[in-house]
Amino acid sequence: MEQWIFSVTAVALPAILAITLHEAAHGYVAWRLGDDTAYRMGRVTFNPLRHIDPLGTVLLPAVMYFTTGFLFGWAKPVPVNFSRLDHPRRDMVWVALAGPGTNFLLAVLSAVVWGFTGEDGGPAEQWLAMAMQVSILINVILMVFNLIPLPPLDGGRVAVGVLPDALAFPLARLERFGLPILLAAFFLLPMLGRQIGVNLNLVGWVLGPPVDAVINFILMLTGND
């Protein structure tokens, strides 16, 4: 039981912080750029309790980590009225980048803290080392996943904000189909592949190389390579 608590908390706490602070960053940047929708709803806060979705923030990430090694989850989305931003199209890009940017900074901070832990430490230090390693992985996966250029992901909003109208408008119209496309690509296709004996693991193909590259960069940057 003690080992189970040790492992679950070392995974759940970094996951909760990564997912909820990602959302809080969107609300904060939107507020600073003219849209106070999230602020008026009490969502411009780094208190994870205001952003937690019990299923998407706690249960699903933990189950997926221990069963598949892949992490996927969500917090309660922060409401942003893009039309109220000072410069809607330009500022939409900054609001979108705030989430992945926060995940990158959290991964760097976690790597710095991890560098101060040792293999011969006591239980508390071992827990901290494991939690920081998980935090690096979770934050980098969230950053890379959310930068996929497909609305409603952050990368899709960035693409809509920077592409010429001829490309941006058709991409924006894909937003209502974005989540079903992602679920099919990352979950249904691998399940189908296992049934027919073909490797259709798009998670490994699409996310694996950039995730590994970013983690290696962060470890080099913080002197942990």
From TrEMBL:
It is a multi-pass membrane protein. Its cofactor is Zn(2+). GO terms for cellular component: plasma membrane. Its main location: membrane. GO terms for biological process: proteolysis. It is found in: Cell membrane. The chain crosses the membrane at residues 51-72, 93-115, 127-148, 177-196, 202-221. Keywords: Cell membrane, Hydrolase, Membrane, Metal-binding, Metalloprotease, Protease, Transmembrane, Transmembrane helix, Zinc. GO terms for molecular function: metal ion binding; metallopeptidase activity. Belongs to the peptidase M50B family. This is Site-2 protease family protein.
